Amino acid sequence: MRPFLFLGTRAEDDVAQQEYDAVLTGSGLRPEELVRVRLEAGPLGEVDLADWSGIVLGGGPFNASDPEESKSPVQRRAEAELRELALRVVGADFPFLGACYGVGVLGTLAGGIVDRTYGEPIGALPVRLTDEGRADPLLGTLPAEFLAYLGHKEAVARLPEGAVLLASTDTCPVHAFRLGRHVYATQFHPELDPVAICDRIDAYSAHGYYEPHEQEQLKAAAREAVVTEPVRLLARFVELYART
């Protein structure tokens, strides 16, 4: 089998490793089958799509809607590299699954708008599939409504031209969409479990996702939530796209 490529942007080693391990577990892949590149640590380099079965992009602290003057050189480089890769992926209709940060990367293509209109606080919310989502080969493996962990400052305010809306919440109209037949972005996190989301709440306490006094309350609510379905997306992505 050709390996999958995992792209991360998290600077915290423990959180970055936890995210990668969670994607390994959820996808059923071995480390040699999910090759990781940490974009916050160095350039992406050349990516020959023919070498890979598909690409998975994790979440992270970067936001496409951050003011340009506030972006670090690392963020600017990562954004430029991911945009170039995204254009190639969409042009080739190559298998791609971007979780959370994937919305910022894919949502700004082809006239799409990503801004702060539909941000949601950290926690678990019901996500509902659209008719297209229920019929989709990837998202359709999930129930019509399921609970998912999320937390984001930005979201899609206008879908890219030609994008297919697959899922929404009451407070965020675009929680998953598809470009072409094989390029996906989800606003929710398919890889998260209660331990991981609590660790992220701690790790990003100074990143403006919540007020300091809310930290323990958010963790308690996350532990109480029963989130079981979203992780199935990872194994389904591998099932659909693994190739020799």
From TrEMBL:
<dbReference type="InterPro" id="IPR044992">
    <property type="entry name" value="ChyE-like"/>
</dbReference>
<protein>
    <submittedName>
        <fullName>Glutamine amidotransferase</fullName>
    </submittedName>
</protein>
<feature type="domain" description="Glutamine amidotransferase">
    <location>
        <begin position="49"/>
        <end position="193"/>
    </location>
</feature>
<keyword id="KW-0315">Glutamine amidotransferase</keyword>
<dbReference type="Pfam" id="PF00117">
    <property type="entry name" value="GATase"/>
</dbReference>
<dbReference type="InterPro" id="IPR029062">
    <property type="entry name" value="Class_I_gatase-like"/>
</dbReference>
<dbReference type="InterPro" id="IPR017926">
    <property type="entry name" value="GATASE"/>
</dbReference>
